[in-house]
Structures are given as C-alpha cells and as structure tokens.
Amino acid sequence: MDRLLRQLSQLAITVFGIVTVTFFLVRMIPGDPAQYMLGDYATEEALATLRAQLGLDQPVYVQYGLYVLRAVTGDFGSSVVTGRPALEEILFSLPDSAILAFAGLVVAVVIGIPLGILTAERQGSWSDMLIMIVALFGISFPVFWLGLASVLLFSQELKWFPALGASSGGGLLTHLHHLVLPAGVLGISVAAYITRLTRSAMLEVLGQDCIRVARAMGVPERRVVWRLALKNALVPILAIVGVTFAWSLGSAILIEVVFSRPGIGSMILKAVSARDYQLVQAGVLVLAVAVVLVNSLLDLAYGLVDPRLSTR
Amino acid sequence: MDGINRKERAGRIERSGVNRRQFGTLLAAGALVAGGGWPLPASAAPPVLRVRIGSDIGNLDPARIFQIENQTVATQIFNGLVKYDEASNAIVPDLATGWEVSSDGTVYSFALRSGVTWHKGFGPFTSDDVKFSFERVLDPQTGSSYSGQLASIKSIETPSPDKVVITLKEPNSGFLHKVSAFNQGWIVSRKALGEIGDKAFALNPIGTGPFVFQNWAPGREVKLSANKDYFAGAPKVEEVQFRVIKDETAAAIALENGEIDIFFGLQQPEVIQRLKGGGLVTVHDRDANHTINLVLNTSIKPLGDVRVRQAIYHAINRKALIDGFFKGTKSEASGFLTSSFQEFTDQVPLFPYDPAKAKALLKEAGVGSFTLDLVAPGANPYDKIVVPIASDLAAVGIDAKIKVLERGAYLQARNKGTVPTCITGVVGAPDPDSPILSLFAKSSFPPGLNTAHYEGIEDLIAAARNAQGDAARKEVYGKIQAKVMGDVPVIPLYADHLYIAHTKKVSGFVQNSLFTMSAYPVSLLEA
C-alpha cells in the first residue's frame, strides 16, 4: 500500500513538473497562435479579438495559474485551432499511438531478447558478429529511413502491404494489414537496441561464479542459459524494455509521419507548429503519464522477478 | 585459467548444435515477420471518392477559414452568390440566378435561386441568410480576417426572400469578386449558426452545397455525404473522404496502388515527375493565381534606391531556379499577377538575368559591396530556393546571408516590418485587388503584407475602384502592373502551378486555379 502511494505521489510530481516545463517551453517559441489560426491576411483587430478570447493577452504567470487551477479540476483547456477540449482530442488519438507502440514493442521483444541471449551465449562467434553488425546498422539507420525504404519495397514494389499506415474502416484483418509495416519498422529499430543491451546483461550474468558452479555441476547448458542466467538478467532487461517503451512512443512520431498514421505524435507535431498551446500540453501530459505508468508497472514487475527488489 | 577457458570453448562447440536449431527457428520467425505479407485486397467499389489532403483541417467557418485544406473541404459544403467558373475563371451565377448593377456602380441587386434548402433540415435558404453572412463577417466581434474584403458594403436590404440588395459606400468595380464562393463569399445559415453556436460551427458546418459534412476524425479523415437535394442535381458519388496523408511519396504510392483516388496538393517536383513518368495515373497541371515573390524592403538602405532593386532583379537567374530546382514544374513570371487573371498583362518592364548589367546598376547607384539578409520561412521550397538566390547575388558582389526562420518566428519577424527581404505569395481568388492591396497598398504596411513599404500606386488603386466596364478595368490594372514592376518592390521568382493527380477510375474532374478542388463533377468508373 505504502509502495503504491509512493508510486502515485512520484507520478503526480513528475507529471506536474513535465506540464510546468512544457507550459513555459511552448510559450518561449516565437510565434502567435492567433496569427496561425487567422492566417496571413488577419487584421490587427481580428488578432487582438482572438487573443483576448483565448486569454493570451494576459501575463504568462496568470495564464499558468489559471491553467493549473483548471487542470486540477480536470479541465485542460481547448484546442486553439478546433475549439474542442484538448484532452478529448488527444485521447481520441491515444488508441492509435498505443496500438502502434505496443505492437512495435512486441516485435522488438520477440526479436531482440532471443537474439541478445543467442549472441551472448555465442560471444565471439560468426553469428554473434553478424547479428551485432546488423544490430549496429539497425541502431544507426534512422527509423524514418527504414520506414521509407520499407514502403518502397513492400508497398510499391511487392505490393504486399498498403503504403498508408491506417485504414479507413474495414475489419480487424484490414487494420492488422495496415499495421504490419509501421509496427514492423518500429519494432526492428527498437529490437536492435534491445538485442545489444540484452547481450551485455546476459554476458555479465554468464560470467558470474554461480553460472560456473552450475556448469561445473553438470547442469545442462540450455537450462543454465534460459533458466538460471536469463532469470538473473531479467531485471536489467525489464528496465531496458521500460526505457524503450518511451523510445517507441518517441519514434512513433516519425513512424506516424512516414506512414501517414494518426496518433498523438503527429498531433503534437501539428500542435507545436500551430502554437496550439493547450493541445501540446495535453499531449505531453498524456505521453508523460503513459511512460511513467509503464515504468511504475515495471517497477512492480521487478518485485515479481526478483523478490529482493520488492523490499527495497 | 587456461583450463577453464579451454573447457568453455569446448562447451561452446558442444552447444552449437542446439543453438543452430534455435537460430534457424529465429531466422524463420524473422522471415515470417519481415516477409509474411499478403497481397493488397482488391478495393471494393462503392461510389466513395477518397481524396488526399496534406494536412488536417481545423476550421470550416467561412468567416475564419484559412489554409487550402479547409478551403477545399468547404468548397464542397458551401455556395456563394456567384462563383468562379472552374475552367475559365469567369464569374457565373451560384445561389444568385442573376444580378443588376446601378448606373453609378454602387447598388448591386441579386435575384436568388428559390427552393434551395440548408443541409440537415435547417430549412430554406433566403435573402436573410445572405444579409446575416456578410454582416457577420463585418462584425468586429466575429474577428474575421476577411472583414476588409467586404468593407465597401454600406447596407444590405432584403426586400423579399429571393432578392437581396447591397449598397456600397463608393463604386467598386471588383465587388463581385468579394461575394464569389470563396472565404467570406460563402453563405452560411442564420438558423444553423444560432442553434449550433459560433464555436462549434467551425467543425459542424451547415451549407447548401453538393456535399453534407458528416464527421471529422482528427489527424485521420473528414467524411462528407452526397446532398441528394442539391439544387444543381445530386452528386455522382455517395461519399467523399478527405484523408490526411502528409508525406507526398507515400501519397503517390497510395495513389498508384489505388488506396486513394485523387492526390490533392501535389507539390514536390520529384513526385510530380514520377507520377507523370509512371503513366498509371492522370496528372493535371494548371497556372495558379499566384506568384512567389522576393519582397524588397524599400525603407531599408540601400534597397531604397530603385537601381539597387533592379540590379538584384537582373542578378537572379530565375530560369535556372525553375529548370534546376523545380525541374520545370513552375514557370517564369513577368509580373506579380499570373495569366489566370483576366486583368493580366505582360506589357511590363522586364529585367532578364544579366549579372553584368546588375553590376553596372550597382556601380551607377554608388553602392559598393553590401550585406543583405535573405529571410525565408522554414518550409519547402522557400528554405531551399534562397540558396541559389544567395549564390547569384554573391556573383554580383552582394553578400547575401540566408536566414531561415520557423514559420511562427518568420511571421512575427515579417509583421514587424523590419526584415530587409522576405518571401511572399498571395494565394487565393483571381481577384487582382487581393495581391495588389495586400502587397502594395499603404493600408497594408506591416503588420500587413506590404513588407516592401511601397506606396507608389495609391492614385491608381483609387482609379481601379472606379473603373467601370472590362476595358476600363483592364487599362487601369495594366498601368498598375507596369508601374509596380518598374519600381521593383518585389521580384517575382516564379509563377506557381497547381498539380492534382488522380487514378484512371476518376472521370469528369475539372481543375480550378483556386488551390481547391470540387468533387461535384466527379464520377468513378467501374474498375
């Protein structure tokens, strides 16, 4: 119970800090939401009217105070461009982003962890070198490049998958069909990272005395690696997965642009260029909560993997 | 130590059999993930037209509308009193069946179409809606960007539901342009706005047009359904979906794969060439209503000297820019208007590429080497075309410094009016007043678009307003173009072209010059 309360208070402090930083950061960028909304031909009077309607004519600290007061009651303001509640608009896009990040992470874990174990086990062999080189390429290639290349290959040349990362209507199969390329690209770029870090974690464990003892006692190698070593290496691997989830959400912005997929990432991007302050704040808030929540869940999972950690 | 290492090595060799199997399984799994695709399903053929737009919509309220995506969607929903003929740009009836102008040019009487109804059961369209729409734009509380466009209106009377009489403060020969179906010219319903509310109307628009707004999924798409009761006859497609696809390469592949039907807002030269070369789709090309100009701030030294401005004009190799950077997808402009304006003339002073002459003019003006900031917004292609311009200027001894600013910062800098140069194009209707007043009238000094601080045509602007009849208008607008181009407050870098591509299934498409498109004449052929 204590632990849960501590986690929740940490969550609240983190989110408050992030929202505050975002609030002032977006207002430091030069530009005017009213100008963006009304366009090049807006008169000074029209701009002033809109600024007053949006409360942008008040000092920043007053705007901040009002924002925090409203946020406490669950009111995160309205989008400057569309006039709709900002949180509602962001939450509308949340499932799209969550599905992509989750699918990407599943691909990454399914590929990355076994390859990391394999290469650690076969350290120095040709397969280790080959996989590590491929993983290095995977990390080095920007995710948008991988995305574009996969569209050219799988959509344009082979015509296996649609070029657009989201379907308009259609059943589950259609949705999955549209998801394969974006999730695959995201997963592969993250998998490269997971492979390398899993390999390091496993190597460290495999070098420990307990493993030597187990081997000396004649425990079958498969059991040594997949049971004893993996269980010990699981905590750092879980930590990596937590970090890569945040990374997946970040990469998802690029993936969403390349594959023309709706989502929080592309929405925040659009909101930043429109100086749609409330929408940016709501977007960052939702992303921050998602990342903190996932990491908190993983913290709890550490306890299950390694009971020693749950008492800390 | 050595012994253990040997054992480990031996163990590795022993283990390799098992691992090879595991490795094989992994490879197979990887292959399944990477290559486990299935062919694209043959698209079903309900009469749904899928149109690509490059960015999301945000506001469809005609009083506040801005950006081509919003305007394109609104084109399907709203009508004006009159409209531009898609092919010829001539002004033709829309909600008005005809009009009369008083002999002094100040009273416009419009006879309205009867039997027109608003979408979603908001009742019949009447003259009161026209009055409401224009007065709403003029009301400072609305905060419309277009109130200036209707500023010449003195009063609006509605003697009967099918007649509206608009009295102007002074004659305005271009008044019909202001009430054409575009931006402030689109008519809204008094009843619908009253019930839906000003704010919500932006994304719940009610019009009289061929398509009815259904829903908007942020970041994804906008759906419109056919208005079966449309006064000119029901559209030939059941539904129009505007799908947000930002990346042009992805949109091109989607078009060739048949995932979309129409590619709106096609701009990248490489993508245009690719679609043209592929032969799988039809690519339309039309002169736009705007040129892209390098604006020279005449209030800043040494740009105040007309010879310096003319020298800069001579120094820039526009043809190389068009052939090289744009791969021939734009054309050379002789002035700030394009041939799609009925008032266009090419009888203006010309300043062909001639570095020697540029140097001579600079020498004559007594200007040695000087530094010039080239200020551009950080958006394709403006952030890129400044590079060859800077190198052209360097060749005649002008040290051009490129300053690319993010759009918000750029607008702010331009509105201050202190930037020595900027890049501006006035996109919109083929109404010559639009670019002329925006770019060259004293009333548009910053924060307006007259960043040049040019005031050489105030008398001609007044004369243009009073010119009655096509010939008189052509003459005075010709004079304006000649005077401005001789004074060089702006250098037209190129005349823009509009490209739209569609699949072979699309039939009846007509491209306009407004940077919008109409889905109304389109039908979809059976595959």
Q: Could you characterize what this model shows?
A:
By secondary structure, chain A is mainly α. Chain A is 79% helix and 0% strand. In chain A, helix 5 runs antiparallel to helix 10 (221-258) and helix 5 runs parallel beside helix 12 (277-305). The mean pLDDT of chain A is 84. With 527 residues, chain B is of the alpha+beta class. In chain B, the strands form five sheets. An eight-stranded mixed sheet of chain B has the order 8-9-10-1-11-16-12-15, with helices on both faces. A four-stranded antiparallel sheet of chain B has the order 4-5-7-6, with helices on one face. In chain B, a hairpin with a 2-residue loop joins strand 6 and strand 7 (163-168). The termini of chain B are far apart. The interface between A and B is large, with 73 and 72 residues.
Q: Sum up the overall morphology of chain B in one term.
A: globular
How far the N terminus sits from the C terminus of chain A, by CA atoms, comes to: 14 Å
What proportion of the residues of chain A form beta strands (DSSP E)?
under 5%
| Terminal residue distance of chain B | 75 Å
Biggest interface pair, residues each? A-B, 73 and 72 residues
- Derived from helix and strand composition plus strand pairing, the structural class of chain B reads alpha+beta
Low-confidence stretches of chain A: none
Strand count, sense and barrel status of the largest sheet of chain A are:
none
* Quaternary state of the chains: heterodimer
Average pLDDT, all residues of chain A? 84
The percentage helix of chain B is 25-40%
Rg of chain B, please?
28 Å
